[in-house]
Amino acid sequence: MNNQKNKKVGKHTVKLSNPPKIIATYSIVGPKEGEGPLRDYFDEILNDDTCGKDSYEKAESDMMHTAIRGVLGRTNLKEEDIDYLFAGDLLNQITSSSFAARQLNIPFFGLYGACSTMSESLSVAAMMMDGGFANYVIASTSSHFSAAERQFRFPLEYGSQRCATCQWTVTGSGAMLLAKEGNFPEVTYVTTGVVKDYGIKDPNNMGAAMAPAAVDTLVRHFKDTGRQPNFYDVIATGDLGKVGKEITNKLMMEYGYDIRENYVDCGDMIFDDVVQNTDAGGSGCGCSAVVASGCFYKKLMRKEIKNVLLISTGALMSTTSSLQGETIPGIAHAVAIEYKDK
Amino acid sequence: MNNQKNKKVGKHTVKLSNPPKIIATYSIVGPKEGEGPLRDYFDEILNDDTCGKDSYEKAESDMMHTAIRGVLGRTNLKEEDIDYLFAGDLLNQITSSSFAARQLNIPFFGLYGACSTMSESLSVAAMMMDGGFANYVIASTSSHFSAAERQFRFPLEYGSQRCATCQWTVTGSGAMLLAKEGNFPEVTYVTTGVVKDYGIKDPNNMGAAMAPAAVDTLVRHFKDTGRQPNFYDVIATGDLGKVGKEITNKLMMEYGYDIRENYVDCGDMIFDDVVQNTDAGGSGCGCSAVVASGCFYKKLMRKEIKNVLLISTGALMSTTSSLQGETIPGIAHAVAIEYKDK
C-alpha cells in the first residue's frame, strides 16, 4: 500500500491518484436566478419557486431531488448504480437533503459545512472514489431564499430592510455525478479547510466572516501544490459576495498572491446586483453548487476553460449562536477540477 | 489499482483493506449519565452540566472540545498530527462541532446524520484512512439534554410532561482517534444506510421511527458480509431505546435473524429507567458516542469481548418538518470493530 503515502501533498492537501471524473452535472434554479447573468448555463429554471409544494422547505427538498434525478438522467445510470450520495443544505437538521434522499435507494452521508457544503461534498465524494470505495457517487447541495430568510433572519412578510453587505440566498440545487472512467473534467486535488474566526459578529456581513477562511485555504492550496494562481483559468470562491471578494483580494495580496486576474466569486456572478437588488451578491449552499454545476462545468466541457479551483465558503453560525453573542467562524474547502486533453 | 475493486462487498458494504486502528477514545458525560449503570466506563463525569458556560449550547461545544483534547491526551499526538476531524451534533447548523473545531488547527469535515452521526463519522473517518488520505483522524459527536430539549421540544422551564416512548437525550461527547498501526481494535467493515421512512409522525417515539432503518442496515450487513449475528459478541444499535429495540428484535426475526442473544441498544444501556425516570431510554448523538468510546472500547481493550457491530441510528427530522406534517425518516450506519489477537 505504498500509494497511501503519496496522496498527501503538504499538510492540508491530497492529490488524487486516480482522479474521479465528473461525468455529468445538473443545475436547477429559481425564477430570480433564471433572470440573472448566468441564466443560459442552468439546466432548469423554475417558474414557481414553491415547486407546487405547500412550503418553501418542501420546495427546496424537491429541487434537490430534481437535481439528483436530473444528473442521473444525463447518463444511462440508475439510482441502484450509485454507491453513495453526499449531500447537505442550510436548513436545520439538513432536512432538504434527508427528505430528498428518502426518495432514493442510495446509501446516504449527510454533510454540513454551511455554504461550503458543495466543495465539502465534492471533496469527500472524490476521496471516496479515489479510495476505491465506489464506482459512482453523487454530490449535491441546495438552498432556497425564502426558506433561509425565515429560518435565519425574518419571515418575508415582515418586509425587513436589507443592507449593503447583505447577500441574497440563492434558490437552487446542483448535483455532480462522479465516475472512474471517461473523458471528462476530473477532480485532481482537494485542500480541506480549518475553521477560522476573526471575530465578525454581524450576521448581515457573511462575506467578511468567510473571507479569512477562503484566504487561508487558498494560501495552503498554493503552498501545498506548488501551483501559482495563474495555473488556474478560474479561481472561484463560493459566496463571499462583493464585500468578501474585495477582502479576499486584499488579504491574498498581503500573502504575496495577486489573484485578481482570474478570481471570481459565484455569489458575485449569479445576480446583477444593480438590476436585481441583491446588494452584496448571492449566497447559500446552492450558490456555488449551481454556478459550478452550470457555468464552470459547461465551460470546461466546451473547452472554454481547462481548469477551475472551486473554494466554497461557509459561515458556521446558527441563529442561536449569534443571539448568544458568539462570533461567526468560517470555513472553506478547495477542489481543483481539471479537464486534460487526452 | 486493482485493490479498488476488492473493497466493495455487496451493494452497501465495504471491507477495509488496511483496517484503521482505534488507538484511543475519550468519553465525557453529564452528572445524570455519571449516575447510570455505565458510570465506571466513562473517562470524565461532569459535576456541572453547564461546564461553567453561560448556555447549554456552549457547554455542549465545550464537552466536544474536551473529548477531542482528551483523546489526543491519551496518545503522544498533537493536534498538528491529525489530518482530519469528522464531527457532528444535533444542534442547528452543528454549532457544537464547528465551535469545537474553531479551537483546533485540524482540517474539518462537518457531518449530520442526527443520532447516527457517531457511526457516520467513524465510517467516513475509517474510509479516509483506508483510502490513503490520512495518518491520523478523529471522529467525534456530542449531544446535551438541555440544549436538545429546548431546541426540539420545549424549554425545560415549562416542565412539560414526558410519555412512555419518550427518550432522554444524553449529555455527553465521545471521540475516537484512528491510526494506521498498532495493536488495537480496528474498523473492518462499513455498511452505509439508506433513508427509510415508514410513516411515523410522533416526535416522541423516535425509536419506532428509527428501528426500520436499523433493521435494513443490519440485514444488508449480514447479507453483504455473509456473517451471522452470532459472529459478533455485541450488536449495538445507537439509541432506539426500549421501544425501538423491541421492534428491531421482532423485525429481525421476520427477516430470519434472531439477534436477541447479543443485541443491545446504547440508549437502553446508559440509564436505569426505573430509578432515573428516563422512560424509553437515552438518545442523542452523544449516546452511542460515549457508550462506544467508553464501554465497548474498554471491553475490547480488556479482551472481555472481541468484536462489536455498532449501528448508530438517526431520526432525520427537524421541528419545522414535523410542524409541516412530515413523517420522520430514519437512517442507520453500521461499523464493525474487531480486536484480533496478533
TrEMBL record, chains A, B:
InterPro entries: SpoVAD, SpoVAD_sf, Thiolase-like. This is Stage V sporulation protein AD. It comes from Clostridium chauvoei.
